[in-house]
Design a protein that fits this description.
The structure holds 2 protein chains of 2 kinds.
Chain A (H helix, E strand, L loop, with lengths): L2 E5 L1 E2 L2 E2 L1 H16 L4 E5 L5 H5 L8 E4 L10 H15 L3 E5 L2 H14 L2 E6 L4 E3 L2 E8 L4 E7 L4 E5 L14 E4 L11 E8 L11 E5 L10 H10 L2 E4 L1 H5 L20 E5 L5 H7 L4 E6 L12 E4 L2 H18 L1
Parallel strand pairs in A: 1-4, 1-6, 4-5, 5-12, 6-11, 7-11, 14-15, 14-16, 16-17, 17-18
Antiparallel strand pairs in A: 2-3, 8-9, 9-10
Chain B lengths: L1 E5 L2 E3 L7 E2 L4 E2 L6 E3 L1 H18 L2 E8 L4 H10 L3 E6 L5 H14 L4 E5 L10 H9 L2 E12 L2 E8 L2 E8 L2 E5 L11 H7 L4 E5 L7 E7 L8 E2 L5 H11 L4
Parallel strand pairs in B: 1-6, 1-8, 6-7, 7-13, 8-12, 9-12
Antiparallel strand pairs in B: 2-5, 3-4, 9-10, 10-11
Classes of the chains: A alpha/beta, B alpha/beta.
Bound molecules: flavin-adenine dinucleotide and adenosine monophosphate.
Flavin-adenine dinucleotide (FAD) binds next to α6, α7 and α8 of chain A.
Amino acid sequence: MPVLVFAESANGTFKKSNFEAVSYGARVAAQLNTEAYVIDFENMSGDVLKSLGEYGATKVYRVASDALKNFDAGLYAKVLNDVAQKLNATTVIFAFNYSGKAIAPVLAAKMNAGYVAGAIDIPVMEGNTIKIRKNVFSGKAIAMYAIHSENKIIALTPNTVAPVKTENKCSVENLEIAINATDSKVKVKEVVKASGKITLSDADIVVSAGRGLKGPENWGMVEEMANILGAATACSRPVADIHWRPHEEHVGQTGLTVRPNLYIALGISGAIQHLAGVNGSKVIVVINKDPEAPFFKAADYGIVGDVFEVVPKLNEAFKKFKAGA
Amino acid sequence: MKFLVCISKAPDTTTKIAFTDNNTKFNNDKVVFIVNPYDEWYALVRALELKEKLGGTVTVINVGAADTDAIIRKALAIGADDAVRIDAEPGDAMFVAKQIAEYVKANAYDIVLCGKETIDYNGSEVGGMIAGLLDWGYVSLASSLELNGNTATLNREIAGGHETVEVNIPFVLSAAKGMAEARIPNMRGIMAARTKPVAIVAAVASENYTSIISYELPKEKTGVKLVSADNVGELVSLLHNEAKVI
Ligand SMILES: Cc1cc2nc3c(=O)[nH]c(=O)nc-3n(C[C@H](O)[C@H](O)[C@H](O)COP(=O)(O)OP(=O)(O)OC[C@H]3O[C@@H](n4cnc5c(N)ncnc54)[C@H](O)[C@@H]3O)c2cc1C
Ligand SMILES: Nc1ncnc2c1ncn2[C@@H]1O[C@H](COP(=O)(O)O)[C@@H](O)[C@H]1O
């Protein structure tokens, strides 16, 4: 009974969160004495798919159909359920990203599966029960979950379990699944992506700013820092609410959760609701003129100072570092 | 149009998180519970706006014990017409979804609105599971909802942007930021809420597929290392040499 991993590309290549999911699937499979198979719905080139072998997959099954060109969580779940039955799989792994969050719960209902949404480490087996840790209370605590059901679905939080490279070779096969286009209920009419920018949810480095920046006209230096570091930009909620920044940038309890390697907070107080969205970051740097700002308690490094003085100097120092590196 | 809004109870966002019984239970002593923000601010308010424009009814549904009556009254005060409480301790997401799906099968609704996630268990599960159980279309993380006859147009968040989708009723959505602006209940709403009907419905038998065995708190930070504002170069070298993140 193989472990299935759903992988999705961005512009013909895979992203880190997919490698993580494949590697995770392979490690779960090893614990179950079985293999990890990747399922591709995008009819990608054999070479790109074979590269998933490096992360431990032994087979990639390509399910090709025009109906799958339209992303519909319901249809995707239906087809994955058919694939799981055909391949006799009881465990399915997703990345806990936008598509994983959409498809996995629908599939859980179709497969009658116990689902852990947002696992943060490798599971432990106890007989037929899987035990996995997951963040709860917006990162303020961790809970150990058990899945008791026969069928199991796990979505892995990006940037929590590093992918492991292996010497595996993997083969690519086409899998025939009868797909009924009328099963697709949701039709995508238009896709809008901010071009060239690094997406916040995948970024290794995030530069974030708050009300301390005083106004939208002052974001030049924030964007400059992001450019130098190859980072994505984010903001606190009030900044998005007063339309200084687009709401996609809002991180925190009611916005996006990010867990980059480095989170730099400029002029953000560090309210508990803001921390809830960023406290999974590996390293946090805080620049705030108020030494009592609560964010310093959650930070690894800090500068007490005025952003309008510190940030331009820091940008110069980052530039010099990058030029020398 | 008949809207069904799923509301759950969540600890206030400033709650100090602690556990009891050897770290196996959430300590809800002195915790103030609120309507899960995504359910209240976005799902409920958008349903009310559309009802005000197009007519229809807005029902809120909760799977919970009698201790959720306060949050149900809050939703009624904001403007929901009536409420349903499925009388059971909410188990895992599939348990909750099965209760709601069974209720929807027996009582026709056009659109089921959930929040993006509950702020305690952060699963983003229940909405998709309801859709899967009913075999309805599912639009996750929707940031807008417009209706034109039986067709709905929604924006949904995707990696690096958003997309516009179309779906016919009936369908299920999960509501994210952007869908509406929070409303504060007024005195009239609070008074009216007292007399609005709340149906208490028995739960259907259902298993829990998952359970929580124990909790722990994340490792505390060891303390911030402060760098002088006059020596930003030191921060750069710490980030490179010590933290190894640049
Ligand atoms: C239910 C609920 C949900 C919420 N969800 C979120 C959420 O998801 N995300 C979120 O961010 N917030 C959220 N909030 C709001 C949160 O409580 C705070 O109000 C918010 O995070 C504060 O944003 P801020 O730090 O940008 O602004 P402020 O609190 O105004 O802080 C500005 C900071 O900048 C500093 N500063 C000012 N000038 C300078 C300068 N020249 N140089 C350096 N530093 C300077 C100040 O010392 C201060 O610390 C939520 C609140 C509630 C009630
Ligand atoms: N006990 C419950 N009763 C009613 N609706 C719920 C309940 N739990 C969760 N929901 C709904 O499902 C959404 C997603 O919850 P979750 O899957 O727990 O993140 C919430 O925002 C609510 O709209």
